[in-house]
Design goal:
By secondary structure, the chain is α/β, with parallel strands linked by helices. The chain is 49% helix and 10% strand. It has helices at 18-30, 45-52, 77-87, 109-120, 140-143, 156-165, 170-179, 184-191, 195-210, 216-225, 228-248, and strands spanning 7-11, 58-61, 97-101, 126-132, 147-150. Strands 2-3-4-1-5 form a five-stranded parallel sheet, sandwiched between helices. β3, α4 (109-120) and β4 (126-132) form a beta-alpha-beta unit. α3 (77-87) packs parallel to α4 (109-120) and α7 (170-179) crosses α8. The protein starts with 6 loop residues before the first strand and ends with a helix.
Length: 249
């Protein structure tokens, strides 16, 4: 409907499908034959180019390569300057130009400052979409210039149905979804490895500590030796669940 804000911030924890939704929005915006609901048709030339990753009016900025050929761990100022120059050009198809910055919360300070200038003086018919797992890492000046789109976790039944569609059995899907605090993308990854076993081991260790059957130093040493951050996350989630059960009583 030609009402998109020039700056979008698509935010959600990893695993909730924000990148897929952003890609769908880009596809719809560049489609020349959208359906009645505004979705991309998937057949026009614009859709074909988007699908092939070669649409000239779609730009994606992500981690570049260092001089030694290894990928960077942050988005740098040179990338933002190149993006600004690219968006200053006219659309090749005569419609919108759309830039995706992903992950936007991994821009360094200089890159964020360069992007701010582009957001303050946007080019005509241009949309910049920032994809962020942790939007709080972005400067407030950037967040304030974007329309924020938060992707919520789905309802439990919907998440379970999606996991079952990925060929995860019902028992494993339920356990993984509970362990991930309702995040289906994370649950899918955990259902295929040993994370559920790690969670059970954490629960067993905490129960043993409460009963005095294990020494804190013993548990701390074991956790420190194998995925300590994940084990601490499980411990905090288990503590939260225990607190909720006690309050429910």
């Amino acid at each position: 409907a030609q009402r998109l804000h020039h700056g979008l911030l698509v935010a959600a924890p990893a695993g909730l499908g924000k990148r897929a939704r952003a890609d769908a929005l880009v596809a719809a915006a560049l489609c020349t034959q959208r359906d009645a609901d505004g979705h991309a048709c998937g057949a026009c030339r614009g859709c074909q180019l988007v699908g092939a990753g070669s649409h000239p009016d779609r730009v994606r900025v992500t981690f570049g390569l260092r001089d030694d050929g290894k990928p960077r761990t942050e988005i740098i100022v040179e990338q933002m300057r190149a993006l600004s120059q690219r968006l200053a050009l006219s659309s090749q198809f005569g419609g919108l130009q759309i830039a995706l910055i992903d992950p936007a919360d991994r821009m360094n300070v200089a890159a964020a400052n360069a992007l701010l200038k582009t957001l303050e003086e946007p080019a005509t018919a241009t949309i910049i979409a920032l994809i962020a797992d942790d939007p709080t890492r972005l400067p407030a000046t950037i967040r304030s210039r974007c329309q924020r789109i938060d992707i919520p976790a789905p309802q439990r039944d919907d998440a379970l149905a999606w996991l079952r569609a990925q060929r995860i059995d019902a028992a494993t899907a339920g356990a993984a979804l509970e362990a991930s605090l309702g995040n289906p993308g994370v649950a899918l990854g955990w259902a295929g490895d040993d994370m559920l076993a790690v969670r059970k081991a954490c629960a067993d260790d905490l129960a043993a500590l409460v009963r005095g059957r294990r020494a804190p130093v013993e548990v701390a040493d074991r956790w420190a030796a194998d995925r300590p951050a994940t084990r601490l996350w499980f411990a905090s989630a288990l503590a939260r669940d225990e607190a909720r059960q006690r309050v429910g009583r």
